[in-house]
Specification:
The complex is a heterodimer of chains A (about 160) and B (about 325). With about 160 residues, chain A is α+β, with helices and mostly antiparallel strands. Chain A has five helices and five strands. In chain A, about 35% of the residues lie in helices and about 15% in strands. In chain B, about 30% of the residues lie in helices and about 20% in strands. Chain B is built from twelve helices and 14 strands. In chain B, helix 11 crosses helix 12. Classes of the chains: A alpha+beta (about 160), B alpha+beta (about 325). Chains A and B meet through strand 4, helix 3 and helix 4 of A and helix 2 and helix 6 of B. The structure holds flavin-adenine dinucleotide, iron/sulfur cluster and FE2/S2 (inorganic) cluster (FES) (2 copies). The site of flavin-adenine dinucleotide has 31 residues of chain B, from strand 2, helix 2, helix 6, helix 7 and strand 10. Chain B: Keywords: FAD, Flavoprotein.
């Protein structure tokens, strides 16, 4: 049975009609048109669908949309302010932390969660926490460099 | 991959959750959802109703009281291993919780959900399309078991990382039902039956994990071998606890049988012995006898047997240094 729910995404409240078996990923992409968040494996094994839920890195393909009611959801579309890229995005662009870009929204959102939790992480810590975000192109070296550089750019602050 | 259709409830109290479950025997509880939703997408679990526990706020804590460490079943793994007492005094638990899947699974997955996760098998954890090449296996609703080549049996393997760590820490769990709650040894909730791996009664949910603080006095560790260090289930996992003052050892394994296994014969063998290079030489042989390995994963039995021995030995060597 369809039900109406309100989701808070990137600071805006959206009223949507959903079925309980729809994941947050499906609702973000298909109902709200926020296609920045990617569907990779759809089975919790690649990280492409990572979004922030109350500030933490969640896999939106393993989250029921109804369970996200009352949470602050942030997607890649909500990261830049006005026309300005977020410092994490700037680092990825400048250091070539992406190639095809498919994994990038998930990686950037995970990086945001990591840096909010630990503003000056060690490289080891970034590697461990990023391990669930698969990338077929970059070989990860530049991804890690971009996150470390973003940490510096953000002055070790949030 | 679409989820199958189901009715959804989000109860506000444990009692309400238990009542719904009693009413709907086919309903399934959802905690973090990182195990259940994958199985549902694969259509190996198709409950008619999901009872989401996300509305129960009072099951998220790590507390110490009266010589016990109490952890709410809905506490997420990340919070468990970041707890200062757990990190410092219960290293086996911290190591096991932080080895589950990736950072995302540790952020979303709960301790209760980790313990209660489904058993695994290379013929079961597959899409409906993949599985359609063979008749439905017994666990998925048919008759044959493709591992045992017999009907009506299931040798799927319990692969949870945290159970062995909690077993060696002598943990108990609180099970709540409509009639109230009871505390039982963690070991007793695992049935050893592949098709129905948990001994929970209808309407019962696991609400709390209780660890005696005495388990903090002693050495403990958890070691895991997986295909990728980053994200995979264990090929084999081993937890060890030893006490210098009593000369006791407790050892438990995961991914080696239909349930997590405490290796009591090995523990008896080691009792009172001084741990040294010589005494731990023979543990490989002993440890293998207490498990029932089957070809339910892509790794061969002989490989798993070797890993098992090596992991236990390496944990015991660490214990020798740690004592
Ligand atoms: C890519 C990937 C990798 C993974 N790697 C690992 C790994 O390395 N190690 C590992 O152990 N797990 C792994 N997992 C599985 C899973 O993420 C974890 O086990 C997690 O801790 C499960 O917790 P949850 O709260 O998400 O469980 P859920 O999916 O919510 O529940 C799991 C099962 O337990 C039942 N249940 C949940 N809570 C309760 C309760 N309180 N009382 C009674 N029944 C309950 C549910 O009905 C369900 O059957 C992995 C999963 C994925 C997708
Ligand atoms: S062990 Fe047999 S019955 Fe059990 S999941 Fe595997 S194939 Fe199915
Ligand atoms: S799409 Fe969610 S983890 Fe791959
Ligand atoms: S940039 Fe192509 S998958 Fe990562």
């Amino acid at each position: 049975m369809k039900q109406a729910i309100a989701l808070t995404v990137n600071g805006d409240v959206y009223e949507v009609l959903i079925s309980p078996n729809q994941t947050l990923l499906e609702v973000l992409r298909d109902k709200l048109g926020l296609t920045g968040t990617k569907k990779g494996c759809d089975l919790g094994a690649c990280g492409a669908c990572s979004v922030l839920l109350d500030g933490e890195a969640y896999l939106s393909c393993l989250m029921l949309a109804v369970d996200a009611v009352g949470k602050e959801i942030v997607t890649i579309e909500g990261l830049s302010e006005g026309g300005d890229l977020h410092p994490i995005q700037k680092s990825f662009v400048e250091l070539g932390g992406l190639q095809c870009g498919f994994c990038t929204p998930g990686i950037v959102m995970t990086a945001k969660a990591i840096l909010d939790e630990e503003p000056q992480p060690t490289e080891e810590s970034v590697k461990k926490k990023m391990a669930g975000n698969l990338c077929r192109c970059t070989g990860y070296k530049k991804v890690i460099e971009s996150v470390m550089s973003a940490s510096g750019r953000m002055g070790g602050k949030q | 991959m679409r989820l199958p259709k189901f009715d959804y409830r989000q109860p506000e109290s444990i009692q309400e959750a238990c009542a719904i479950l009693l009413d709907q025997p086919d309903a399934k509880v959802l905690a973090g959802g990182t195990d259940l939703l994958v199985n549902m997408k694969h259509r190996v679990e198709t409950p008619s109703m999901i009872v989401s526990l996300k509305g129960l706020r009072d099951l998220d804590y790590v507390r110490k009281a009266n010589g016990m460490v109490r952890i709410g079943a809905l506490t997420r793994l990340k919070k468990v291993y970041n707890d200062p007492f757990v990190a410092k005094k219960l290293p086996a638990l911290a190591a096991a919780a932080s080895s589950v899947g990736s950072y995302h699974h540790q952020t979303m997955g709960t301790l209760g959900g980790n313990l209660c996760q489904q058993t695994r098998c290379k013929y079961f954890n597959q899409s409906k399309w993949w599985r359609s090449a063979r008749p439905l296996c017994f666990k998925a609703g048919g008759d044959p078991c493709h591992v045992a080549k017999k009907d009506q049996v299931c040798y799927s393997t319990y692969c949870g990382d945290v159970a062995p760590a909690l077993l060696v820490l002598n943990a108990e769990v609180v099970l709540s039902g409509r009639e109230g709650s009871k505390q039982v040894p963690l070991e007793s909730i695992f049935s050893g039956v592949g098709k129905t791996p948990l001994n929970l009664e209808p309407g019962q949910i696991l609400t709390e994990i209780v660890i005696p603080e005495q388990s903090a006095d002693g050495f403990s560790t958890y070691k895991k071998i997986a295909n990728r260090g980053s994200i995979d289930f264990p090929i084999v996992g081993a937890a060890v606890w030893t006490s210098a003052s009593t000369g006791e050892s407790r050892i438990a394994l995961t991914a080696v049988d239909r349930k997590p296994v405490r290796t009591r014969q090995l523990e008896d063998f080691l009792k009172g012995l001084e741990l040294n290079e010589e005494t731990i030489q023979g543990v490989d042989g002993l440890v293998a006898k207490e498990t029932q390995l089957m070809m339910s994963s892509i790794d061969s039995i002989s490989y798993k047997r070797k890993l098992m021995g090596q992991l236990v030995k390496s944990a015991l060597s660490e214990a020798m240094g740690g004592r």
